């Protein structure tokens, strides 16, 4: 929208938004009863998540200082972004602004288990039964991300302004990921 005032665009991280994850997300919250168990017993999943409207958003905004309402605002906004999945793959086709898209891979076993197995709400929503399940879930998700990026690279083969960068897990205290991102941004913006 403001490309004349923009030196470059940084997208971090690229989210895996398409129909299958959208359906899976709705299924986790609605059909697995995770909304009722982990988000809200006060607000209906259909009205305040799947089919939220401006009036309901206004009601939540009045109470956004409360944790439950703030969480619902975040989750419903994120779901609305997921619903626009058809726009995402094409959105880079005609850009003339230098753009870097970062994708991270969390292949750190300890951090993976902490996020995906030691958090009861995640285990319940994703139906993870063991540590091995958590590792397999993350590996399959990572392969899905790689396939999506490969498809985007292919679709944007003629776009010389688009760069994809992979970042390995960010749980390594000996590596300065912020410096890595800054240096890679400088490399594309100041060729």
Q: What's the SSE pattern?
A: EHHHHHHEHHHEH
Q: Please count the beta strands (DSSP E, at least 2 residues each).
A: 3
**How are strands sequenced across the largest beta sheet?**
1-2-3
Strand content: 5-15%
Task: Specify the number of helices.
Answer: 10
Radius of gyration (CA) equals 19 Å
Overall residue-averaged pLDDT value: 80
Give the helix proportion (percent range): 55-70%
Structural class of the secondary elements? mainly alpha
Q: In one word, what is the shape?
A: globular
Characterization of this structure:
By secondary structure, this protein is mainly α. The chain has 2 domains: 19-82, no CATH class; 93-189, no CATH class. It is 56% helix and 8% strand. The chain has helices at residues 19-31, 34-39, 45-50, 54-62, 67-82, 85-88, 109-116, 120-126, 131-155, 177-189; strands spanning 9-11, 99-104, 162-167. The chain has a 3-stranded parallel β-sheet with strand order 1-2-3, with helices on both faces.
């Amino acid at each position: 929208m403001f490309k004349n005032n923009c030196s470059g665009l940084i997208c971090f991280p690229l989210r895996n938004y398409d129909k299958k994850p959208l359906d899976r997300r709705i299924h986790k919250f609605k059909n697995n009863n995770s909304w009722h168990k982990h988000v809200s017993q006060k607000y209906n999943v259909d009205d305040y998540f799947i089919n939220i409207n401006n009036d309901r958003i206004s009601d939540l905004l009045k109470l956004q200082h409360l944790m439950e309402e703030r969480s619902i605002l975040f989750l419903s906004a994120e779901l609305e972004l997921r619903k626009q999945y058809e726009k995402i793959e094409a959105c880079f086709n005609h850009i003339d602004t230098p753009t870097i898209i970062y994708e991270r891979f969390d292949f750190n076993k300890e951090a993976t288990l902490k996020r995906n197995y030691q958090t009861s709400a995640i285990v319940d929503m994703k139906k993870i039964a063991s540590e091995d399940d958590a590792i397999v879930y993350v590996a399959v998700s990572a392969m899905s991300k790689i396939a999506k990026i490969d498809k985007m690279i292919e679709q944007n083969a003629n776009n010389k302004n688009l760069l994809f960068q992979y970042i390995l897990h960010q749980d390594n205290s000996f590596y300065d990921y912020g410096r890595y991102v800054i240096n890679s941004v400088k490399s594309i913006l100041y060729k």
